Amino acid sequence: MNSLTDNLAFRISKVNIVSGKNKRYLTSGNFVTTMKLPNSSSFSSSSSSSSSLSSSSSAAKLVRRRTYAPTGFSAERDQKQKQQPSSLMAASDPDAKVDRIAGIASAIRVIPNFPKPGVMFQDITTLLLDPKAFKDTIDLLVERYRGKGISVVAGIEARGFIFGPPIALAIGAKFVPMRKPNKLPGEVISEEYSLEYGTDKIEMHVGAVQAGECALVVDDLIATGGTLCAAIRLLERVGVHVVECACIIELPDLKGRERLGDKPLFVLVSSV
Description:
alpha/beta; two-stranded antiparallel ribbon; 24% strand
């Protein structure tokens, strides 16, 4: 069986959010589709971490119809699955991957006009309240990055601290917190980035990473991409190779992916 994203892509839209009530997967509040990605988006068989990850993997596009994830199985396929442990079945079955991503998407609450008018806030606290959806989120990312030579998982404050550590533990990497200014007690190295009005910084401890290490940068969401770009620059300044950035949610209208340039980005849910 090929990699996580060989045979599936997914995009889901939340509606009826004015009332604050999100519909569950495959109800009238969601539109779901799946499609096959080109082979170039899959993992290669090379052991090199820089070539083993796709350059662009994300959710598929929204359709204006309700599409049910396929659930039928042939007799031969049923027999093969009965002979496999359930954990291996979940990792290899494309239909199961569709269901897991759908569950993750439906567990994310959208809150309109927060923290200011016009903003549709993607609230991952409801995802954390759902043990299965939370576990599926971590498992899907671990399946993607295990065995890829990644020795550093760098989590961006603050919600990158939620998803980064369990991924790091599962793949045998160290976790490095990328913090806002004046939060780390030791000597730090910092990188400045632009905001809509003014600038901000991201910092990490000196000596937390070593030149030549391979890193995964993790955050919950990519919007404009400014913080992710700063994290990449900070790591690369000390000689670390950033293999990929991973986020749970992407806001494609804000074009953060474009800001990353040729740096690969992987997301589970693309919100519209």
